[in-house]
Amino acid sequence: MRMLLVEDDKDLVTTLRPSLERAGYAVDVVGNGVDAEFLGSESLYDVIVLDLGLPDRGGLEVLASWRAQGFTMPVIILTARDSWNERVEGFKTGADDYLGKPFHVQELLARLNAVLQRTHRAAPSELLRKNGLTLDCSNQTLTTGGGLSHSLTGVEFRLMRYFMLHPGKILSKSVLTEHVYDFDSDKDSNVIEVYINRLRHLIGKDKIETRRGQGYLFKGE
Ligand code: CA
Question: What is the DSSP letter of 68?
Fold first, then answer.
């Protein structure tokens, strides 16, 4: 899952980012409203965490602009402005959830998980089940048909989760690359093939089809 973290508090970013990455998010950080508005309109992100008090343009204005342009990605507002009327304003503008500062990172992770599960219309659970596979998002473990458990690396986990949330859809190499890596990673889309072959080795070759010239398709059942 690729996340845009819009936050101008550098200390908070420093503490938050490693926890988000450990939880399996590829995180891009932006610290002002103008760049945030632009990046959020690139349709790259599976979820956005948005601070309200930002330089250049306020978070609510940024959110209103995304929604006016028809962008529906889930947005969680994270802010010190935490009175009830500000929350109401946030939801009216199009936020999916709202968390007041200070907060505990575990609560943010739980809310992110719930928002993403809702977006993908699955049961609110840390377990994703598809095609005889169970992916445990809390410890990034994949259980395959014979009941065998495999610990996945960060990239393998993000790739597998993306496949399981989009069963039956053709996903191009570039889409997979965008959703699995952050800005700072070396985005060689050929590496995706290597990871897909490793996943196939774990789950069985036929579960991820190659569609020549188009991409890959994970079979949901
Ligand atoms: Ca701020």
Answer: H
